[in-house]
Amino acid sequence: MSEEPIEILVRMAESGEIDPWNIDIVLLTDRFLGELERRRELDLRISGRTLLYASILLRMKSDALIERVPDPGGDGADDEDYSDELFFDGGMDEEGIESHLGPMDVLEREIQRRIKRKEYRTRPVTLYELITQLKLAEKEERRRQRRRHFPDEDDLFVIADDIIEIAHDEAFEAASSTFYATLLLLDPEGFDPVPLSRIASEIGCPLYEVYIPALFLMLEDRVDLIQEDFYGEILVARIPAPVI
After folding, report:
1. What is the arrangement of strands in the sheet containing 223-226, beginning at the earlier edge strand?
2. What is the reported pTM?
3. InterPro entries this protein is in (predicted)?
């Protein structure tokens, strides 16, 4: 049975191979590809989805290496503060040429457009942000394939969980359930965000062990993670369930 790409990334974070708070895309890509090579040598099946993620990571690595080369003629005039943006906005599904581009083209257009921005060069990228961007690129590829097979149909074919679908290993589900139950205990009314460190203390585990469950719950739109300062305390806020 093959392991999905998100599971591979999460396992790499849990084992300490990558820092989930400050992703080095070059290091992560090399280790991700190394894992695929190990699986190939063991004759383990590698899914097409995993190969797609590998190709996206290779593009990100390529652009990151280009970005690390100093520009002798640069004067910083093009630098702007885009601290809330990363790689691309995810708005590629609106009308326009972007709707018909594959994930590699989408990433290349947006990364090249922002490659000189100061915040892109300096701000830490978390595992959550990286996974979000990988899933956005995957979503664009699925939409492109749908348009190829159903050129006269509109975005009714877009499946809502395309962007939030992730692997639900039983261990992750159990950890997420424990995390959420603890959050309910500490904030029964859902009004006051709870520090992540307090949740870890209440559960009785190291801080790094509650980061992954928090990430999964955030991808499921059950909690929101708030961090006002880089490397500062992370607050966990419950997201109210939609009223049906």
Report:
1. 194-195, 235-238, 223-226
2. 0.47
3. ScpA (IPR003768)
